[in-house]
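hey so i finaly got around to running the thing on TetR/AcrR family transcriptional regulator from Pseudoxanthomonas mexicana. pasting the sequence first so u can double check i didnt mess up the copy paste, my clipboard has been acting weird all day
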Amino acid sequence: MASPPPSPSRRKSPAKPAASGPGRPKDLGKRAAILEAAKQLFAREGFNGVSMDQIAAEAGVSKLTVYSHFGDKDALFAAAVQAKCAEMLPDALFEIELTGSVRDQLKAIGEAFFALITSEEAISTHRMMMVPGNIDDRLKQTFWEAGPQRTHDAFAALLQALVAKGELDVPDVAIASVQFFTLIKGEVHARMTCGLCSQPGPLDRRRHIDATVDMFLRAYGRR
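ok and heres what it spat out for the 3d tokens, dont ask me to read them lol
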């Protein structure tokens, strides 16, 4: 005897199509390509000289994809600055658990920071920021928070942890952080931004970093 057909309430509903929209996972490969294109174009052409169409073309994606990942040009600029800093000054450099001496860790941070600020992209971006009327104050603040402020805050947190461990004697970690990176920049960075010299060779760079770390430790080393 044939079985009766299932009642409407027991019939299976057709499968729903996959959800799309803002909550859909982003393609990390496309995001990385967009960031890489943005880093190169902003450094070479300046903020105002770059369009979202150019970035999309350089990254090999549609302009809609660029907006989907970053929202607008300001947000993409901030993300590009942050990505460049994270690439050359990774969070691992500021971890208290790293093995080795405090001197070695400070040297590693100093070398990474010096390589970052003397890179062609950083020098070009610095010059762009210095041109009056090139970008507005809001975007300058965005740049500062995404790049220099992130680095200063991470280093200040490391100094505070080293103070807590008794490795350093630093009354004000925020001031000490500014002092350290200002010393690392030195005269070379200013001369490079003025086009008066090129990036120093490995030996000169090492001497500069070593001298800076020695001075810093003489001021804040454990007594």
